[in-house]
Input
Amino acid sequence: MTTQKFKITGMTCAACSSAVERVTRKMEGVSESNVNLTTALLTITYDEDKVTPEAIIKKVDRAGFGAELFVEKTKKEKKEEDGTSEEAVKKTKRRLITNIILSVPLLYICFGHMLPITLPLPAFMDMHKAPLTFALVQMVLTVVVLINGRQFYVVGFKSLFKGHPNMDSLVALGTGSAFLYSFVMTLSIPNNPTSVHNLYYESAAVVVTLVMLGKYMEGRSKNKTSEAIRKLMELAPDTAIVLRDGEQIEVPVEQVAINERILIKPGSRIPLDGVVVEGATSVDESMLTGESIPVEKVTNDEVFGGSVNYQGAVTVRVTHVGSDTTLSKIVKMMEDAQGKKAPISKLADTVAGYFVPVVMVIALLAAMIWAIVLPEVQIAFILTIFVSVLVIACPCALGLATPTAIMVGTGLGANHGILIKSGEALEISHKVNAVVLDKTGTITEGKPAVTRIVSHEIFENELLQIAASCEQVSEHPLGQAIVNDAKEKGLELLKVSKFQSITGQGIEATIEGKTYYIGNKKLCVEQGINFEEYEQEAMEIANQGQTPMFVGCDGKVIGIVCVADTLKETSAAAIRKIKGLGIEVYMLTGDNKLTANYIGEKVGVDHVIAEVLPNEKASVVEELQKEGKCVMMVGDGINDAPALVQANVGVAIGSGSDIALDSGDVVLMKSDLNDVYKAIKLSKATIRNIKQNLFWAFFYNACGIPLAAGVLYPINGMLLSPIIGGFAMSLSSVCVVSNALRLRRCKLNSEPISK
Output
């Protein structure tokens, strides 16, 4: 069996992707076929003895879509592709703005007389004095709007004729019918001025404009996804300093071979994975592990491409190049995760697949039946029946049901600092039954801070003053945390006459003739400093997930400064609220088990998973999904990006990296876990609202279509005119919009009843 990817063109909605899946799955030899609408990729597994790529392409072409073999692109090609996508979105935006500008006066011309305060139309456009001009102005405005939205008609009718109707078909059929009927009425105005009351131009224009708005938002969201991968790829430098024949030569990373030695200077990014063979330093691996505290590196320690070298020049022997580097694998995982089918709702498109042909059949049957039963009736009667059915079934309410609720819901979320990047994310969130939280920067503050000072010899502030004075010239994050704490307490820093950084251990500094050592246990052993008096307390501190910094002088330890990544004040309460919704909460971290278990117990999570790398984070999410869970992943680091994409809903903390923000479906601007609870509650309220909207949309159709078909005509001579059909259609839209606006009163802060 062979698995291949194909790039599909011409898809606009879930009905399209379902059609591609349906026709390819019917092919003999195909065992699996999945289409991802966001990436427009078909991933298909087939028997190469029975199926060829050419046959697959022809099958997709016959279904009304384009297909070609997917080829991995280079970094440069991906940038060019991003530029093309951005230009397409900009073009859609320009057309959308034009349509809005034209639709507003069109609505005023049609309904302005119903407003409390109206501006009279010019005499040459007066509906009663100049009905033909009144109609022609509307027609011209509508024609421009429809030309701007011509893609709906091209794709919609093509899909319809190929036997795979979609939402574009629904829009094209409904708005096209409204426009054609209005056009016929416009032609009849010279002979029958009352026809001016039978115009539905504004319905066609406004529906097309609203659908274009949705397409524009979808395009922007897709571009953000590709931007996340591009930023991740750019983390690794394009060049490396290679040591060849005793010389330092800067070459492109593509020209570096395995086992070659490269020089990493202080402050630079490491270009490739490797092993330290000379020197010692501390490296920021937050892009990999999410941990803010630098990792000390000495001979034989492994380093990863994309991480930042803090101190000391080191020589590294390259162990992985190209697609084998850790960073490249993260990029690949993100692309694979994006290629997998998202469990989004297909309700509207599924309904559209049946709704369009059913409405057409009803309209044709009604017209034919009346033509047979009453052969003496005029063509106008038959046309009225046919058009009335189509007009009353025009998908205004159906088209508004989901986007209006989503727009109000996302607006409410934005007011609470919750940015929801797509309607799908808002929709899926209500199904979440497992929330996976990254530790660093999500549950905790993400930066080290002084948590405790221990000394049996001197006052705490005096010890802090000494430690901060020694660390004031250090660039190490732990040292900076001590300095910041001293400054916040208003302590004056003493002058340092001598300073030396001892890589992997700590520092040595001289103040007023006294030499102080600040660092870890290894520093005390190497410098012969007695730490027995504080050893037990240091172990207890370490067991609580904190880093003990020994301060030594005159051959003995005089105190300990404890540094740790502190908990956010709201974390425990927020996790309690999330659990109150009946959701399991997991904590996922690259930190050691001891620290992770302590933090997990402190905030009350259900499960703690520690010592995991990025590929393992995504795998953990995938395993939970295989267990049938709908997973929401919350994180802030680059290392969280693959897991954010893999999850059903990825939630990025606002203070996190740009890549995490681009990878997430939801962004919490306030970096507060309470907003995770609010996002889930908002999703539940929005989906409930959407279901109500869909009910009202179909309720009007269920009542109106039989009336439009003339079921009451034999009984009481009642025939539903297109005017009444248009009114019913408008009323259903008003109901849908009014119901969506109720969402603004949803109280997101209220706490659930604990289960």
Residues 340-345 have pLDDT under 50 and may be disordered. The first strand starts at residue 2 and ends at 9. The radius of gyration is 33 Å.
